[in-house]
Every structure is written in structure tokens, then in C-alpha cells.
Amino acid sequence: MISREEVERTAALAHLTLTDQELEKMTGELASILDAVSSLQEVDTSAVVPTNHAVPLENVMRRDEQKPGLSRDEAVANGPDVVQSFFRVPRIMEEE
Amino acid sequence: MKLHTLEAWSLRDLIRDGSVTSTDIVESFLDQIRARDAEIGAYITVCGEQALEAAKHSDERRREGRTLSDWDGIPAAIKDNISVKGVANTCGSHMLAQYHAPYDAHVVSLLKQAGMPILGKTNMDEFAMGSSTEFSALKTTRNPWDRQKVPGGSSGGSAAAVASHQAPWALGSDTGGSVREPAAFCGLVGIKPTYGRVSRRGLVAFASSLDQIGMLTHSVRDGAALLQLLAGHDELDSTSVRREVPSYESVLGAGASGLRVGLLGGASQQGLQPEIHEALEQAACFLADQGAEIQEHAFPLLDKAIETYYLVATAEASSNLARYDGVRYGLRVEGSDTGEMFRRTRSEGFGPEVKRRIMLGTYALSAGYYEAYYRKAQQVRTMIRDGFLELFEKVDVLLGPTTAASAFGFGEKPDPLQMYLTDIYTVPANLAGLPAIHVPVGLDHGGLPIGLQITASPFAETNALRSAAVLETFARNRGWNR
Amino acid sequence: MIIGLEIHAELSTRSKIFCSCSTAFGGEPNSRCCPVCLGLPGALPLLNETAVEYGILAGLALNCTISVESKFDRKNYFYPDLPKAYQISQYDQPLCRDGWVEFELEQELLHAGVTRVHLEEEAGKSIHSGDNILGSDYSSIDYNRAGIPLIEIVTEPDLRSPAQAKAFLEQLKRTLQYIDVSDCKMEEGSLRCDANISLRPQGGRAFGTKVEIKNLNSFRAVERALDHEVQRQRNVLETGAAVVQDTRAWNEAKGVTVSMRSKEESHDYRYFPEPDLPPLAVNQVWVEELRQSLPEMPLPKRNRIMEQYGLGRYASDFLANSAIWADFFECAAKQYGNYKVLCNWLMGDVSRVLNARQEELPQSRLTPAALVELLRLVDDEIISGSQAKDVLEEVCATGRSSKQVTADLGMEQISDEDELTAMVEEVLAAHPEQAQRCREGEERLVGYFVGQVMKLSRGQANPKRVNALLRQKLQQ
Ligand SMILES: [Zn+2]
User: Fold this and answer.
1) Are residues C128 and C154 in the same domain?
2) Which residue of chain C comes nearest to B99, CA vs CA?
3) What count of other Cβ atoms lies within 10 Å of the Cβ of residue B383?
4) Which of B208, B319, B324 to mutate to test the interface with C (most CBs of C within 10 A)?
């Protein structure tokens, strides 16, 4: 069963902030969903290869050619905070 | 003449004879939008001026004898998660309410190249996550058959637009039934092509390995025509398939003779609304009368489909929706540092259902759970796909329900799990990448549309369309009249 | 001590790995972007074939096995320079694996294993308003760099000293430059290195905790940072404390490593197969084709040059350090047999002139043929060695042939017998007294007369010929 701490940890990974109330509700909902999906454990998949793609394809590639993309103005047109065509963000506290 | 009530095929005939112009047609739909949409709420953005401009160009081309295609001048509506250059692409979310796409989706380029005006962008569940369009953060869409009912989802706006004659046809997207379920609730034909048949480029990703653009139309032949326009290889979508596109229109009259039809029976029919169950039995009889060979089968691992689907879809979604961080586009809620800005933006920008799915998907991929959840689901997915491929050695198409019941009322499914179960008959086609078509066959006792689903093997849209055309005859015989 | 390296090298393709935007360095911010590399909603990646080939070539040059099947995965993490909030990378099925690199340190041949080489995409660039990331009120993001193809090379923990790490990295850079898949400019960030280091306490059997050092932006930094870190860990161990697992950044200016851990949260990248990209199947034919196209590698080339041309180790190292210089030498050596002289010119004056001109050999106007022509002019005593240096500068500046330059500068030595004889006679006639003393055996006066002839000819007379003619005349 998923714990409140695990829900908190998951929210941190997803960069979501949940209020205490939301956390409570989310824990309950995830618990019941996870309970439902646990029925998959009944299926014997020991020799089964996972499906990563619905249609099997391989080696889909293009030639190394340059083509025009967006203009600089188009590229930053949707930016919420653009200064001299840079996207500006507040102080970066976390290191990658 | 009420142009807006006609199917696209009839509009095409009229425009061809010269009895109407594209401008007449577009104006007729824009009038209808003005008259009806306040009540229905199908559109998020109406592109009236651009559509009229495009219609004017189309009429010029026609006068000069240089039309771009058979469908030059016939307009269409587009779901608001398919990019149209210069037009808002909200995905039904506060997150993207201000975002304007700087490029055309591949399918939109194809429509434009065919000379088709775009009427506007339609409402949807936020980021296509939902089965009722109730999860749109921007507006409510009502079912044109009964305004107390939901239009289905997530392509609820597209379905409602076509059903209320505010567009002759529309594009939607189908990740777990998001075209077929609203088609069922609104009495339309809904097509989900084989994964890879239609380019996804420009469709805002929900679950990349399941998403496919589909069509909502009044008739099977309209659906076939729209699919014909959009199917084909896109060299810029790595999952688009390089494979010849057959003629879809030419198979519509082929009938059922010799067709091997798998009737989904037994457990596959549990909990069906009696009228849908009855229609299914009758349709099987009709097909048999028309010369089809009917065998009874079950959906492979149907009792595991929803579980598999919700793990795969949410895992992919958690990654696809991570890019909404307030840096390059969309909503930003300021914070004292970048991490706080990210968290505030995402917490305020996403609605509860989107957050729930991001949380589930993040959890399913996280260290220690990946094997048990995500990988397990992808393995079961293989078994489901293999099960279908095995079935399609015995039959050409599968006949079954699309939904267990007709449209439900607003707020009727407050529990997420209950809502997820609405998709039980539609998600298998997405998991296995199969083409599937919903065909309306009548009304239930409450006057709401019901219909059936045809599923075919990968790239056998021809079989599905051929069968769908027979079902359409069946429906007409039962008195179905759109 | 054991050290392992993780190296990122940008591949020198023309376009990015998943879109057709330019990979050129610099440019106006966000001017080399498209929906794909900006991570716009609905954009889809399409793999650059040349990036795959460069990855395979790198794998082959590092003696790796090329995976028959490999795939792409998403590495999920949030960072403002990462447009999609995931990096397309390769997780459990890298393109290449199980290779090794041979390199030398103080003439000792060493060997380090390469665990894997995989393809991934570069992130954008953050520019901070203050002196450093934490002191800035805001940062500015430019995505021009986002999507440039990278290879990540992970070594086995086979390196035993900071000096070895540096020598390994130099050899790796040389190798990647040899096969021309990366320009490996550490100063532009197209080659970057992180190091893992752990110490084994004296007398202990097990190695201590691993510490990762990031931000090693030059060869010097690799050695200095590791030296510093070894000392730091030794100091910690001497106090009886334990080294904690950590990620530290090298601060070049202060010469210290600083812990980067701002949060206790460990990373959980939630890797999963990239649904937008089908897997790669690299067949044997393709690999063999690429293997055939590989040039000779640095160490074998060095050894062959030593043997084939009879050059010393230092000179051979100099030549083999760059395939371009070695090729230049070998091309010239086909037309010029005195290899030592040829090599000395390359190491000495040619390097000096190019440095002064701030040119690289490929951009220079100097060709192997021009250099050979120059050396022949010296050998044939048409110009002197010191004149040749001036000619070389002129050739590099103008691209004219060595002969042409010699003629234009009026440098040709006068070796014509009649002309020289006339000058010798003139000088002897002008100084009869000294000529007489010289005939009587005053040997040192020969030099005096040679000087006079050189003066008369404005330095152009061939001194050897003049000497011979003088002796001949004086004996008559
Ligand atoms: Zn790009």
C-alpha cells in the first residue's frame, strides 16, 4: 500500500506541490488505483518481451542536413519571461 | 438549404456542381456556431475570419479550375491538442491557455494542402485525459442529444461540434478511446486508425505509444474520405509507417460476403446496457445474413486491459507533461527560485485529473517500482497484442461494443476508477495499435445514441471500413437516421 | 586509488541529433532552434544517421563491441536548460560497449577499459547574472546548443593516478580527433569530463566511498582537481573519519573541489524506453563499412613513424599527436628523403610561424610541396638556412611557391662560376698586398677575401664556391 511519504516523494519528483488536503485525497486515490492494477501481478509474464512500440519499426533515420527551423522571434514568442531573446528564469538553486 | 446539416460528401457534390461555394458552406457553419455554441460549448477557439479567407481562396481556385483536391473548400474542426500555426493550442488546460502553436501539425498541413478551411479548435479533457470532457479546465461541452449528458471524451468538443452541425467533420485524438467514445455518445462515426498510419507530429503528446489522430464524421464514407486525406507516411514522425495507403472509398460497397467476423461474446459482453447487447446480437445476425461467417471470440485479457492501459499511459504522460515548466511557453507562476517556479507553475497549471495521472505515472516509473508496474504492464501489453494477432488469423474483423452504456450525466462518475472503466472496450485497440471504428446503430430508450465497434488487424482499415459500411446499412434498416 | 572517467564529447555533425537545426557554436540566443529542440508541444524527434555513424566510429576506435540492437531511453529530470524535462539518452542498451584504450605515461604503456559509449542529446546553456549560479538573481537560457549530438564515454575504474587520468584523456581526445567525429575543444565545452575517485586506506582491502568530481574543463583541471581531491580524502581518512559519498565541483580559480549537494534527495531519473524513437539495429555490413573507413590510430601510427622514418620517440610523438601533422609529414616525405631535417622543420620553424600567425595547419597556405621545395633550395645552396626562415614566413603569408618568393626577394645565391670568378678577381686586384701575403701562406686571409666577395655580392655569393675559387686563384 502506498504511504503518504511515498506520495510526497513522488510529488517532489513530478515537481508538484500538494496541500495537506490534496495529499490526503491523492494518497487514497492512488492507493485504490494501485490496488486495482495489482491484478497484473497474477499474469505470468516470465518469458514475455515488453512492448515499447505499438508498431514494430527500426532504424528510422534522416540524413545529416541543415534545414531552417523557427526564427529567433518565433522561438521565443511564447516565452513568459524573455529578455534580449533569452528565456529568463529565477535563481537556479538545484544542481543537475 | 441547410448546408450545415449535410455530410461532407454531399457538400462536396454540391460544391462540385457549382450549386454552392465554399464561402456559402463556411458561412453556414459559422452561422450555426453563432446560433448553437453558447449552449453546446464545442469550440474553444473559432477561426471565423481565417476560415472565410480560406473559403474565398478556395472559391477563386475553383473558378480558375485549379482546385487542390476533391475536398477543396470543405471545412473541418480540429481538436485543441492538434497544432495550427498561429492559433491557440490550449489542450483544454490553464497551462496552455495562452500558447499559440508556431507550426502546423502534419495533418493540418495536409488539410491546408487539400484546400480545406479550418473552422476552429474544439474543447477536450485537459491534455486528453478523460472520458467526458468534464476535465476541460476551460469550458463545459454538452451532449447535443441531451444537454444534461456529457458528450464523451476526451474529443468531446469535436464530437459535439459535428453532432450539432457546427462542423461537417472533425479531427480528434484517440489514446484509449478518445475518438470512439465521444462518437458513441454523440451518434457519430469515429475512426481510430492503426498506430503509425497517421502522423502524430503536431499532436500534443499524452501517451506517445498509444496516441493516434482520428476522425469524427456523420457517415462511414465521410470517415473513409478524411482518413484517405490524412493517412500516409510522414518522414518527420519516426513512428509513422512507410506503407502504401489503399483506396478506402472503394471497399465501402464490398458487402459482408465472405467476411470472417469475430463476435466478442461471453465475458466481453458483461455489464452491457441491454439495448447495446441486443444491437450487438442483431448486428451479428445481419452480417451473417449478408454472407459473413460469424465466430464467437473473447477480447484477449480484457480483464487486464484497463490496468495495463492506465500504467502505460500515465507513465508516458508523466514524462510528456514534464516539459510544462513555465520556461519556454505556457503558464508561469513566479517563485523565488527556479524549483519553486516549476512547482508553482505545475501545481496551478494542471487540473486534478492531470495531476493524478502524472503522480501515478511518476510512481510507476520510479526506482523500485518500474519492474512491478511499468515493465509488467508493457509485458502484458505484448500478450494482449499477440492475442489479437492470433485472433486475426482466424477472423478479418472483431465486432463488439464501444462503450458499455450510452452517455452518462454530468458528475455521475466522481470516482476516478469508475471513470477509467468507461474505456474498457476501447483501450485494447490502443494497446495493440489496431484500427477500430465506432458506428452508430440506433437510440436507446432515453433517446441517446448507441453503437458498435469494429476492430481490425494492423493496417487493415479496409476491412474495418467495409464492415462499418455494412453496419451502417444495418443501422438504417433499424431506423437510425442522424 | 582508483579513478574512472565519464567523458562527454559533442559530435561534429552539421545538424542536431533529432532535428535539422545547425550545430554551429555561438549565434544569437535561440536563433538555431525549432519545435523539436525547444521541446514544443507536439514536436517529435527524428534521428540523425551521421550521429549514429560517428558514435559507431568512436566505439570502433575505442575497440568496443557495437551492439546489434540498441535503443533510446528517456532520462527524466527537471532543469531549465533541458527543454523537454527529459534527455533522450541510452540506458540499458548503449550503442557500443566493452572497449579499451591504450595510452602512454612517461613511456610506460597503459591500458584502460571502456565500459560503454552511448548517444544522447546536449542540453541548452544557462548564463547566470552573478558570478556563479547560486549568487545570481536570475539566469538566461539559450537553447541553440540543445540537441547537439553527444557521445558519453564511461571508463572502467582502471586509472591509478591523476597523471594517468590526464594522459588517458589526452589520448582519447587525440583518438576522437583522428577519426574526425568531434573537435574536442575543452575551452568551448565540446569535450567535458567528470571523474569518480575513491581511495583504498593504507593496509585496507576495500576501496572507500566514491566521490564524483564535475566541471573538469581542461586537461590541467583533470590532474589538479584529482590531485586536490586525493589530498582532501587522505586528510579526511587520517583523522579517522570516513569519506562521504558526494558530488563535488572543481573550482579552477580557487583550486579546490566544493560539494555540490544542495539537497539530500538522490536522483531518480525514471528511465524508460523512448516511445517516439524505434530501436536501432546495427548490422555487420554497416559496422564493417565503417571499420574500413577508420584511419590508423595514434599509437600504431607513432610506432610506425619511428620505424619507417627512423625518427626518435619525441619527434614521432610530435607528428602522431595529430593526424593532420602526420599526414603532412608523410606526404612531404614521399618527395624528400632527409626525414630528420623535414621533421625538425615541422617541429621548429613551421610550428613557430603557424603559431605566430595563429593558424592551424589545414588553414595554412603551406603545402607539403612548398616545404619540400624550400628544403631543396637550402640543400642546393641557393639560399641559406637563415634566409629559408624568411622565405617560409612569406610562403605562409602569401601562398606563393618557395622558388617564387626566393626570386622575388632576390635571395638566390650566386653560384655561377664566371660571375663569381669575376668578383674574386676584382677583390684580389683591389688588395694586392693582402693577396701576396695570402699566397705566402697567411691562411686566415682567405676568410678576409671571402668576406670581401660576400660584401661585393650583397651577401648573395655562394660562400662555399667563393672559398674554392679563391684558393684556386691564389695558387695560380
Ligand atoms: Zn531544432
Assistant:
1) yes
2) C41
3) 19
4) B319
Is residue C264 domain-shared with residue C392, that is, in the same domain? no
Query: How do residues C67-84 score in pLDDT, each as one tens digit?
Result: 999 999 999 999 999 999
Q: Is the pLDDT of residue B1 over 70?
A: no
Residue B257 has pLDDT above 90, yes or no: yes
Q: Residues of A with CB below 8 A from C80's CB?
A: 87, 89, 92
Among C21, C47, C82, whose Cβ lies nearest the Cβ of A69?
C21
Question: Is there a single domain that holds both residue C272 and residue C330?
Answer: no
C93 and C6, same structural domain? yes
- Contact of B365 with B300, CB cutoff 8 Å: no
How many domains does chain B contain in total? 1
B359, three cell numbers: 503522480
Strand order in the sheet with C272-273: C86-89, C73-76, C272-273
Residues of chain C contacting A50 with CB distance shorter than 8 Å: 273
The answer to whether the CB of B431 falls within 8 A of the CB of B384 is yes
Is B219 tagged catalytic?
no
Question: Which residue bears the cell 458499455?
Answer: B404
Q: Which three cell numbers stand for residue B26?
A: 463556411
Which of C289, C312, C347 represents a domain boundary (last residue)? C289
Q: Are residues C426 and C389 in the same domain?
A: no
Q: How many CA atoms lie within 13 Å of A38's alpha carbon, on the beta-carbon side?
A: 8
Query: Chain C partners of A96 at a C-beta cutoff of 8 Å?
Result: 77, 79, 82
The residue of chain B nearest to residue C37, with distances taken between CA atoms, is B328
Domain that holds residue B7: 1-298+398-482
List chain A domain ranges.
4-38
Min distance B312 CA to chain A CA atoms (Å): 10
Closest-CA residue of C relative to A77 is: C30
How many residues can be counted in chain C? 476
Chain B nearest C-alpha distance from C13 (Å): 19
Is B79 in the active site?
Answer: yes
Residue B106 lies in a domain: yes
User: Residue C390 above 80 pLDDT?
Assistant: yes
Domain A4-38, classified CATH 3.90.1070, yes or no = no
Q: Give chain C's domain count.
A: 3
**Taking a C-beta distance cutoff of 8 angstroms, is the pair C442, C433 a contact?**
no
Residue B430 gets which letter from DSSP?
A: H
Return d(Cα B479, Cα B443) in angstroms, integer. Answer: 9
The Cβ-side half-sphere exposure at C98, using a 13 Å CA radius, reads 4
Find the CATH number of the domain harbouring B71: 3.90.1300.10
* Neighbouring subunits of A (3+ Cβ pairs under 8 A): B, C
Instruction: Examine the domain organization and report whether C61 and C136 are in the same domain.
Output: yes
Scan residues 14-73 of A and list those with Cβ closer than 8 Å to B: 14-18, 26, 29-30, 32-34, 36-37, 39-41, 43, 45, 48-55, 57, 60, 62, 70
pLDDT of residue B240: 97
- Structure pTM? 0.91
* Range of the structural domain that residue C431 is part of: 417-475
pLDDT at C96: 98
Q: How confident is the model at residue C432 (pLDDT cuts 50, 70, 90)?
A: confident
Residue among A69, A84, A88 whose CB faces C33 most closely? A69
B338 reaches C (C-beta below 8 A): yes
Average pLDDT over residues C8-22: 98
Q: Are residues C131 and C257 in the same domain?
A: yes
* Closest in C33, C80, C265 to A70, CB measured: C33
Are C123 and C184 members of one domain?
yes
Q: What's residue B145's pLDDT?
A: 98
* Backbone φ and ψ of B374, nearest 5°: -65, -50
Average of per-residue pLDDT values in chain C: 90
**What mean pLDDT do residues B187-193 have?**
98
pLDDT tens digits, C113-128:
999 999 999 999 999 8
Minimal Cβ distance to B328: which of C38, C45, C46: C38
Mean predicted confidence (pLDDT) in A39-68: 95
Residue-wise pLDDT tens digits, C245-267: 888 888 888 888 888 764 445 67
How far is the centre of ligand 1, averaged over its atoms, from the C-alpha of C268 (Å)? Answer: 27
Once rounded to an integer, what is the mean pLDDT over residues C363-390?
A: 87
Task: Please answer yes or no on whether A45 and B376 come within 8 Å at the CB atom.
Answer: yes
Residue C457 or C62, more confident: C62
Domain end position, chosen among C408, C434, C458: C408
Task: Measure the CA angle with vertex B379, ends B375 and B384; round to 5°.
Answer: 140
